[in-house]
Amino acid sequence: MIKVHGLRKKFKDLIVLDGIDIEVKQGETVAIIGPSGSGKSTLLRCLNLLEKPDEGHIQIGDIMLNAKKYSRKEANELRRQTAMVFQHYNLFKNKTALQNIIEPLLVSKKMKYDEAKKVGEALIEQVGLAHKADNYPITLSGGQQQRIGIARALAVQSHAILLDEPTSSLDPELVGEVLQVIKQIAEKQTTMIIVTHEMDFAREVADKVIFMADGHIVEQGTPTAVLDHPQNPRTKRFLQQSISLPEYSLV
After folding, report:
1. Domain range spanning residue 108?
2. How many domains does the chain fold into?
3. Which of 109, 142, 219, 227 has its CA 20 to 30 A from that of 136?
């Protein structure tokens, strides 16, 4: 589903990604963990060209792109393969919760309104917010806004969903409701890459965990292998220093 080879990105003299190779199978949930500044979010943003990588090849589905040279058409085709869920929701403040979900269907998919509305209503119910369909973002909690963001990402039916620390902006008591929605999506074998600092969540939901540090992939494997039996000293140090987070009910 997703293959990345030799991906490099720097900002001026700072190398943020230094030769990243990853492979994500269809239906797989991959969690990316690591310290701040390790390149996790930049990697996600390079996958849909929100950041322009300097070198490397990206393949998502049948679309392959050479980072050194590509056309606008190729860039648009690659972007259509993924949907992004951001840290800070990025909802349209002047549109209701339901309108936020159906907007990409109307604009990018050119779907008729009645059809788009039907899709949106099914998705807002899926994330447990049908009763908030007519509410504007300002009246929703952070957790509710993020759930609407996830529903919007699901609406476009892309090959994969990229989630950039989806709970980092939430108050602790709101984290569980968002993680629950993501867990339900993972159970439907939706291809997802999640940048997260929720270690217990990564252990329970991810098929693969990737540990990044200083722009490199240091270690990757099953959650048990990476989180419970890390082999690299850098991974061990990071996990030892990580604060024990409260356990959230994901039943």
Report:
1. 93-157
2. 1
3. 109
